[in-house]
Structure of Hydrogenase expression/formation protein HypE:
Amino acid sequence: MTPTITDQTRITMAHGAGGRAMRSLIESVFIEAFGSTELARMEDQARLDMARLAAQGDRLAFTTDSYVIDPLEFPGGNVGTLAVNGTLNDLAVGGARPLYLSCAFIIEEGLEVALLRRVVHAMRDAAQEAGVSIVTGDTKVVPHGKGDKLFINTSGIGVIPKGIEVAASRCQPGDRIIVSGTLGDHGAAILQARGDLALDAELRSDCRSLHGLIELMLDQCPEIRAMRDATRGGVAAILHEFAEASGCAVRLFEDQLPVKPEVRGVCEILGLDALHFANEGKLVAVVPAAQADGLVARMQQHPAGLDACIIGEILDGPGGRVQVRTLMGGERLLDLPVGEMLPRIC
Amino acid sequence: MTPTITDQTRITMAHGAGGRAMRSLIESVFIEAFGSTELARMEDQARLDMARLAAQGDRLAFTTDSYVIDPLEFPGGNVGTLAVNGTLNDLAVGGARPLYLSCAFIIEEGLEVALLRRVVHAMRDAAQEAGVSIVTGDTKVVPHGKGDKLFINTSGIGVIPKGIEVAASRCQPGDRIIVSGTLGDHGAAILQARGDLALDAELRSDCRSLHGLIELMLDQCPEIRAMRDATRGGVAAILHEFAEASGCAVRLFEDQLPVKPEVRGVCEILGLDALHFANEGKLVAVVPAAQADGLVARMQQHPAGLDACIIGEILDGPGGRVQVRTLMGGERLLDLPVGEMLPRIC
């Protein structure tokens, strides 16, 4: 007799043990939502048509991320939205067209199925919106107190079209640095959702997929040198990676940084810099100077790029240095934080 | 200043926060061990040559598994051995040649780097032995009490050569069922390692990669109908999947089941059936009757198949039924367990 799964069901160790209870959970929650024929075959692997992949480009992109965000649900999304869009974005910023995702759930005993369903439905919606399929998965259950409700891993496969070469090492002196929108919205929203802030602001995560915007950007400007989505560590971490990989320096213009007033308020309260806050739907791109203005104008026509702007430039050196031209006209160094600023932000 | 990582370092939240501490951990533990040029590029994704993939077959195989085993270290391996071999095996049993792995770590605050290093070195060794590369990864840290030392996800990519069609639905009446060796070694070893057994037996996990053995099997018998590695849920779970997917029934011969005496002892103490115990280096294959004996003989020449034997046959029906011809000559049904028998076995 197979135990039925309802919204009121709480996950038990049996749901991860490989028997009927696990089958029932997989069928009534995961396959029901994702509805992929590959997943429904219940083989240990998805099998993807090679000719279809090879027709789209000359390199396969492959990436992985685990999502351990706290809280699981927040204004603007939940861990499922994040797990799909975050991994899609990691593919897209390399110039890849995202195609397939895996999903692996580590569930803490006691989790309500109602919450799991909300997360899984958010994953389904995000995948559908992006035109990707969730094709293979895994479910594990850990005892109460040995996890934290739900951790999700997604790995992604995409294809990079011939001729596209996006890499941090390609940044050159004189290039411009573009950001696709306001900084720090995700980080501020999560802090607010945790109740860490005595602030009444309307903060909302910017969690979204970027590959539509990126397709348009690469179409307009195939010479984009480097691109990253500015998640954990924020724009500051990305710029440090660019500076170190290319042996160049970076200069930001403080007066050009797009930050919503309510996020600026959070930063001021905490004494933190929005450049260090996580984003989940913003990218940083480095492009040849001659093409920067045209590209920004084009980006602003896309819903994910409405607030796109130029925020800085690549300098000759010293290699690895990231500096900010302040509002007052001075220069300050922007350090890569040593440690923990915003734990479990993604 | 970048904090240095030694064996005595304990993981802090900072090691997952996207700043210098995380960089330092990734460089001195993960890149140091895996040494893959793709990983060392520190881009958000690996980029794999499509022509090289397409030259090896007409389908890309893609799989994922999270590993939450308790304890992390056990006779015969550790969670790292398991995380590499388990995912490789999921690719190989579909007829794929495993090529690339991702690895994503969820680390509980407080974990000693010495343990992490042992796990990572085991992953490196297992990957090298199997000839696969670990090309992309992720690190997250959760607070003390919100995880259990270490969870690892690996996702894998392989290529299935043209003409190979291995699927549970292809089992046909008259086919023979082969197992590659003794049953239940992993499950019994983990129970012993947990101290759950008042038993002095020398139990050792059978954790190993199977794709060498599988290559040889497909070479000898490309008509293999179905293949699975018998992990969580044991051989019993696999046979239920075969019976349901093919609409056939399965009959096992109890007197043919290979079980080590010390594992049989564990089963007797616990009143459990070795057919339900997890294995981490054993496969079940269904093959046309005419080729079964020859294939078994060939398997026995490979280190991973020394104890290979025929354990049963596929029957016309009733569809989904799995029965055992007992030592006494009677027949009993082998049920798929409803719930939890051996939690966190992988």
Notes: Residues 168-333 of chain B form a domain with the Phosphoribosyl-aminoimidazole Synthetase; Chain A, domain 2 fold (CATH 3.90.650.10). Chain B touches chain A through 89 residues (CB under 8 Å). Chain B has two domains: 13-160, 168-333. The mean pLDDT of chain B is 94.
